[in-house]
Amino acid sequence: MVQNVASVMPELEPEDFHLLSGVEQGMRFSEYVNREKLTEFSRLSAENVDYRLDRCEDRELVERKTIQYEGFKLTFEGYDALALHTFVERDTIEGFGAPLGVGKESDVYEVQSYKPMALKYHREGYTNFREVMRERDYTSDRDHVSWLYTARKAAEREYEALETLYPDVSVPQPIDTNRHAIVMEKVDGVELSRTGLEPEQVVPILELILDEMQTAYEEGFVHADMSEYNVFVTTQGVVVFDWPQAVPTDHENARDLLRRDVDNIVSYFQRKYPAEVGDVDVDAVAEALATESFDSLSEHTD
C-alpha cells in the first residue's frame, strides 16, 4: 500500500524536489537511473546529490538498486510528493485531509482549498503493470514504459474526459492536474453499490445513469468501465466518476464498449432489484443511447 506523503512534505527542502525531479527525468530512459547521471538531471553537485538521495531514501521517496551500476527510481510516494508540491505552488490546494477511498488503481484524499475538494492519485501500473500494459491503448506502442508514464497518461485521459463532459454530464468538476494526480470537486454522495434504493427509486435511478451515458456519448466519450462502483447517488441525482479508461466515440470499439457499459449497469440492477427492473433488451438500449433516441427504460423492457 502506498503511504500518504502529506506528513513528509514539511520536512522536504527545494533541493530535495530538484533531486526527485532529476530521478523522474532519468526514468524516461530506464527503470533505474544511474547515480552518476543524477548530477546532470537534477542540476545539483555530486555532494548534494549524495546528501539528497540519503534524505529521500530515508523517507521512502526513492528506491535504490545495485545492478551493473547503482541506480535509483522514484517510489509512488516520491511521485506523489512531486505532484503535491506542484499543486501547493499553484495555490490549488492549501491543506491535506483524510482518505476518501483507496483502490487498486487510485487513492483519493480530501484536500482543502476555498472549499473541500478531492485529490486523486492514479496508481495504474503500480501492482499490475503488465496487465495495464496490455489493456491500455496509450501504452501499446511504446518500447520502454514506466509506471510513471502509465499513471500519468491515465490521469491525462481522465482529466480530458472530465473537462469535455462537465457540466453537461453529471461528473465531478475538474480543477487541476499534474503528473498522475487530479484535483476535482468532492462529491457528497453514496456509492451505488452501497446504496439501498426504495422500490419506487430503482427505475428512475437506472434511467438517470443511462441518461448520463447518453449525454456523454453525445459529447464524445464512452466511459468504458461502468459499474455500480463508479456511480454516486446524491440528493440531486447521480454522479458518474472514474473516467481513465474513457474512449472517444470515434474509437473503433466505442459501440462495443458502450454496450458492455449498459450490460454492466443493467445487470447490477437486475441482480439487486429483479422485481423492479425485469428483462431489459441491452442491445436496444445501447443502440438508443448511441443514436440519442433513449427516452425511458419501459420502451426496452419485456
TrEMBL record:
Its cofactor is Mg(2+). Its EC number is 2.7.11.1. Keywords: ATP-binding, Kinase, Magnesium, Metal-binding, Nucleotide-binding, Serine/threonine-protein kinase, Transferase. GO terms for biological process: maturation of SSU-rRNA. SMART domains: RIO (SM00090). InterPro entries: Kinase-like_dom_sf, Rio2, RIO2_wHTH_N, RIO_dom, RIO_kinase, WH-like_DNA-bd_sf, WH_DNA-bd_sf. It is an enzyme of class 2 (transferase). It catalyses: L-threonyl-[protein] + ATP = O-phospho-L-threonyl-[protein] + ADP + H(+); L-seryl-[protein] + ATP = O-phospho-L-seryl-[protein] + ADP + H(+). GO terms for cellular component: cytosol; preribosome, small subunit precursor. GO terms for molecular function: ATP binding; metal ion binding; protein serine/threonine kinase activity. Residues 65-287 form the RIO kinase domain. Belongs to the protein kinase superfamily. RIO-type Ser/Thr kinase family. This is non-specific serine/threonine protein kinase. It comes from Haloarcula rubra.
